Structure formats: structure tokens, C-alpha cells
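Forwarding the complex inputs:
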Amino acid sequence: METEVLIIGAGVTGAGLGRDLALRGVNCIVVEAKDINAGASGANNGLLHSGARYVSNDPVSAQECRDESRLLKTLAPGCIEDTGGLFVAVAGDDEAYISEFPRLCEQHGIPVQELQRQEALELEPALADTLIAAYQVEDAAINPFRLSLENIAEAEAHGARLLTHSEVIGFERSGSRIRTVHLRQNRSAREIVIEVQQVVNATGPWAGQVVSLAGLSIPIIYSKGTLLVTQTRVTKSVINRLRPPSDGDIVSPGGTVSLVGTTSVGLDAPSPCRPTLSEVDLLVDEAASMVPVLADMRYVRAFAGVRPLLAEEKVTDGRTLSRGFVVMNHEEEGLSNLVTVTGGKITTFRLMAEKTADLVCSRLGVKAPCRTRTVPLASAEINQWTEPGLAPRIWLKQPNPKEPLLCECEMVPLSAVDQIIDQLKAKGETLNLSAIGLRSRVGRGSCQGAFCGFRMTAHLYERNELESDQGLIQLRQFLERRWHGLRPVLWGPQLAQEELQEALHCGLFGLEG
Amino acid sequence: MADTARDKADLIVIGAGLAGLATTAFAVESGLKTVQISLTAGEMPFASGLLDLLGIHPMERLNRWQDPWAGITALIHDRPKHPYARLGLEKIRQAWKEFLVFLQKAGLRYCGWPESNAELVTCAGTLKITNQVPETMWPGVLGLKEKRTALIVDFEGLNNFSAVQFVETIGSHWPALRAQRLRFPYPLKGVDRQTVFMAEALRSPQGRSRLADVISPFLKDAELVGMPAILGLRRPQAVASDLERQIGVPVFEIPTMPPSVPGLRLKEAIEQELLRGGAVLVRGRRALKVNSNGRRCISVELEAGLAKETLKARGIVLATGRFLGGGLAASRSCIRETLMDLPVHQPKKRQDWHRQHFLDPHGHPVNRAGLEVDDLLRPLAADGHCAYENLFVAGSLLAHQDWVRMKCGAGLAITTAYGAVQAFIDCSR
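Prediction (whole assembly, two chains):
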């Protein structure tokens, strides 16, 4: 196999880069150790930042977010819910910071509008009575799964290839160049070798580990962020705490649910990364001081991701580090065809891809300009199933009693799952419960897979995708994976739900044996 | 109110799961004036209909017991705080025997070997160890044992049961199976009560003969036919034998996901028999409070619209279940007993409630939380003595047991129900 550009990592940056290069007519392959958005791209609060959050300590990120969020609202509206956002302070918050905020926003050209207390409470009735200040900004919600799936799909439509579950295990160098990249396909344990002209390392927090295979090093700080998913949506818009960035500052809408985040905890390595109970408690307590209903809310799960942050020297508090990104050319370290892009955030993914593609194209002598600033992101119907709340809307508009629902919590019909299975098979990708879950809302509702996990397994048997007891192995893996997110939120009604799940899966089916 | 039991009951039972139903049954059989109260219809739609006694001990070794009595003897020796150890082997045997007689009286026939557990195949195609099996599932137990040639059928549009999955998954243990998808003779309604609808449809002889017509063409060499548990909500033996007569081979039911027809059937049959025995069943009403005088409980306050109703009794049995049943409630900081705020034995902090892996064979410590009791199944107060001399606990609310992992759910419910009623009678003397 050979390619002009090999992109390592199918998070939103790798996906965006694949699309950027493909639109410039450059031949590329995206390789991914797990699946699309398996890392930080799939574990964030889905927030399209207006830039306001960074005005006090990270003006470059603030301005990049301002420009990129505007661009994405026009070019990728299918992935965005333009909710607007509020910055709110409650009694006890730093008054000096509050009064400085609108001035800083204006200084960086970020639109901000002061609201009267009453106006803010009418707009967002869930806000605390202790509210002392509120400013309206242009934040929005973005669906990271749909964004990556659409970028990959458009890249593929223009000739790019995606290889999932394919992990880079080594580079073969010839002088200052990487000549071939060696991959292991994790499902089949088969090794493949790809001849390359350029290699891009877009692996986020794993960037350091990947370049170490070529004998280089990058000083990455691993900052773990934990988030909570509520059972129902609590606010219309994105709610930010008006204070220097800290834990439990943001409540953002994700379709029919809200996401509460985040924490920032230093880690020694990018994985494994699981949410803990103490992080969950911290988030609930902090966020409830802005939105009191969150204290008694039912949470369906928690999740954690690792932010790749860059530092000149080792620091322990990830909060103070820039959320900016870097594109490294590695030429000083003696490699002329490797680029690493890391840091950044989902709001700036397109810009990261553009800057990286510019460098790669200049090396390849490709003159074609970047087109992602002007060409709208193509939208494919199949990727809509990642959108929370969409399936119930479709179902209510057009109930089809003949078509069984595979997932009752999120009302995902069987035909949607069939579409996804067909697509995975057509592309030769790994077909399992997790791959289907990633591309739809199956398993993400309040039952957290208790019923739909079983039904998906049954459906795969019926399609002859599974034989003998393979389904039990898949079901066990699926349930264990969901457990990471479920365990920290087990109290109240969610614990009762878990009790039912265990009675079924262990009491009746005996899956523990 | 005309009903004397309602004026002053001997025993009030709170809860309508299997433990509450069994307690009421034992009380009525002992001639006690009994009132059973519950807010909901109970958890029986979640019950498989199988009567587990003891399948696994110790659970961390996943050790299966063919002889449940030997297993219980070992459990009593190893785990002196387990509710079975409070009861002792003889009471457990007596309770089990008497309850099976009661079920027979209620018109539900169960099958099983007196000294041995049975194995059957669940809707997931997994093997399940249990003790007493509804008669309509028994041919499946024998079929598995003898590796008979069987046709497994499922139905278009039916969620939660797949014949292909069943046949593939159990294939290495029971190879002579064939899967066939059929069209149920009546269009399936809804998404969440399909099996109940199908069971209702099979009440009529016409429904059964139409189903027989659908099955027969695919029979070929099959010696028996397995299908999801839908053979009627009442008198399932009659439904099964009518079908068998028409298709010519035995049929058997396979336990399904909730709502479970055999669970509902069990509830329905027991309740009818309880009413015949003179019990008062109060449904849809929340028990608000238990009134006491010193160490004696004297009455239960019930929600009655906007007002309250007070029911007096000489003794009370709590069979309110765990988190799903509502007997326990968990906040982020602790687990509480919901009706009387009795002390709950529990892990010290929430971090210790669950293990890192869902399927860890050691089980989750939270599942062994619950009420601690004395040898008369009376919950303990903070001082370690029984909280009230006439308050008893039955079922999963009890601490020091993990019925899900040990496969002893029905056994726990039924034997502690028996124990609670016996203790009440002993205490009243």
C-alpha cells in the first residue's frame, strides 16, 4: 500500500485534515488505533466556543475560537445547534473578574451583551437565585461525532481512505525521511506496511508516544477532564461560570441532554482514563451553585477524556496552560516528512487542519489552496443518528408500528441500525456493538445498554454477522465499557436501573460466569 | 369498612413482590387476618417465573451446586450472617415445600427434582441454574438434558427474543436445534408489552389453533417446539396442552426479558388464591408511616387521596425490596431505608459500593447492603437490639445476601417470608 499522506488519528483533527487534503486533491489514508473519536474528540463537552471563555488568560485561543465558530456555523450547520451562551456569576464570585469580563471581550472583538438579572432568569429559569451578573455570548453546541463522521465521509468521497483498529507500531526511516509506516490491525493481528511521502501525527494526547516510535519526543502534559450527562436537558443555552476557568464551570446542551463539565487533573499517561466518583461529586456540587436543579438531577453516565496540552516546562495545573495548538515540523530533530499537530480544541479543528495541510502541501509541492474556509461540509443522512433527540422527533412525526425500535430510550429504529451495519461492512470496518453505538444513540439513553445491548446482539445474529457464542463475548465487552461511565453516577434512580440491569444480565443470563 | 381484617389485622405486609406475596400466603394459610399493601403492582413483571433456591456459592468462585440443599448447608456454614443461616436448613425445607403446595392450590404447577437443581436455556441462549420450573418450561429442561431435536420459533416484530440467537448461542450444549421466524396470527401492538399482548391472544381456542397452524408446517423432524414465554396469563398448562394436541409434539416456554409473562402469571395466581383465603390486598396506595408505642408497632398510615387512612395490626412485615422496589434509596452520601429510616448495613463510602468491573464474580458490595436482623428476622436498631418486637423483614431488603449472583432470589423471598410469619406467630404467643 502507498499514499502521499498518511494521517495518524481519526479524531476530529485527523478527520478534518483528511477532508482538507482530499479537497486539495491530495491522496491520503487516515489510520486509527481504535475508532473514530475514540480519544479526546469523543470525550468533550461539545461546545463551540465564542472565545469568551479564554479572554482573560489565552487571547490567541479566544480570537481563533471567535473566527472559527462563526465559520463553522455557516459551513457545518448540521453539526451545530446555535444555542447561544451565557456567562453567569453567583454571589461570592470575584467581582473584579466580573467587571473586567465585558471589556476583555470587546478588546478581542467578541460580541457580548450584558443582561439584567431578571432577563437572564427569564431566558434560563434553571439559573440560581443567587445570580449576580449575566452576559450573553455567541457560544453554541456542536456534535463531535457527527462532525468527525461527516469530515471522514467527505474525505472518502474525494478518494481518501480510513483504516480503523489499525495501530502504528513503527516507522522505517531512510536518512531524514520516514519511508514506510508499519501498522498492526488489532482485530486480525495482521501487520501492514504503507509507503508514504508525508506523515501527520494527529493523535492528540498520544502524539508523544507516536513520535517516540521515530526516536523523537514531545513534552505533552496530560490533563484529564471529566464530564457528566444528565437524563434531561436543563438549559436552552450554554451556561459558563463567570470566573477564572475552574472545575464544574460549564453546562452545555447536547440535544435532549445536558453535559456538565469539566475537571482538570494531571495524568502521567494518556490512558487508561476513567471518571472517578470524587470528580463526579465535585462537578455536581460546583455546577449546582449555578444551576441548582443539578444537585438532584438523574445522571445517566460520566465520561473522561485527556486534553493534550503543551508546556515548555513541566507544570501540574493544566488549567493555566494555553488551549492553543501547535504544528511541529520536526525538521530540527532531523525528520523532513513528519508533522505533528496537537493541542487545540474542537472549535479550532478546521484551522488546525488547514495549517497542517498548508505545511504538508508545501512539502509536496501541491499548489491547490485550502477549500475548507468556503466549501460547506457535506451532510450525509446516515450520520444523523448520532444526534441526540433526532430519532424521537422522526419517530413522533412518522410513527411506523411495523418497524421495531431497537433502542426504546433513544427511539432508534431497526432500519437506522441496519444502515449503519451496511455502511460499516461496505467499508470493511470492524462490526461490533461499540462501533454501532458510536454511530448512533444506541446505548446512550437511561437504560445504558441493558435492553438495547441485548437487542443489538440478537439483531447481529439475525443478520448472520455473529455465530456460536460470539454474541455473549460482544455483549460482555459492551456492558463493561458502559460500566466505566455508569459506575460513578450510581445513586438515586440510576442505581435502581442498574439493579434491574444486573438482575437481567447476571441473575437471568448469568453473564458473570 | 365491613372488612374485619381492615379494622384490625393480625399482620400487615408491606410490598407486593414475591416476598410480600409469599408472606401473605403463609400468613393466610396460618389463619391470620392479613392485609397486604403496596403502591405499585410490584416487581413481578421483572420476575422470570423460575424459582431459584441456591445455584451458586461461593459466588467469587462461581461454584455451581447440583444439590441445592448441600449448597445451602455449605452456605450456612460459610456465611453465618446470610438470611439462610438465620433460618436454618429445616425451616428452609419446610418453607419451600409449603409454598409449592400453595402454588399448586393456586393452580400453578411447577416441576423440579426434590434434591437437585435443574438447568434450562434463557432467551439469551445461556444456561441458567434454578430449582423449580413452571410446568410449561419443563419440556425444555428435559429436552436440553436429552439433547432432543427441537424447533425454536420467534415472531416477526417481537423485540427481545431471537430464535437464531438462542440456537447459535446454546449450540455447543444443545446442537439439535433449528430456528424459525413466524408471523404471529395477530398483529403485534406496541413496543413494550408485546409478550403480554401475545399471551392474551392465546386465551381463546381460536388464537391457539391459529398459532398451531402457523407452527405446524415447519415442524419436520422436531420432537418438541420452544418459544418465548407467551402461553397465556392464566392456566398456562391448558394453553400448552391445547397447542400440543394440535401440533402433535410437546411445546415449551423460554424465559424472556421483562415484562415477563410467567412473572405476571405467578402474581395473578397467587393474588387470586390470597383473595380466596380472605386476605385484603390494598393496591396503589403508599404506606406513609408506621406508628409505634415504645417497642411495639401498632399501625400503618396509608395515603388515601388527600387524607390518610390508618390500619391497625398486631404485627408488620416489611417486604419493600431494594432500590428498584423502593425499600432502599441511595443518595450520593448514603443508603437509607425509606419507610421507617431503619439502620442500613452498608459499605462505608460510595467508592466501595461497586467494583471496577461490572461482571466481577465477587459481586458488588452495595448488593449486600440492607437491613440486619435478629434470629426472628426483626430489624436491628442502632443499639444492636431488635428495633420493634413485632416488626419483621422478608426478601431482598435483608442484608448480607446477593441473590442475583447466588441465584437464590425466589428462595430468599419465600423462605424469609415463611420465617417472618413463623416468628410473628411465635412472638404473639
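Residues 76-141+226-298 of chain A form a domain with the D-Amino Acid Oxidase; Chain A, domain 2 fold (CATH 3.30.9.10).
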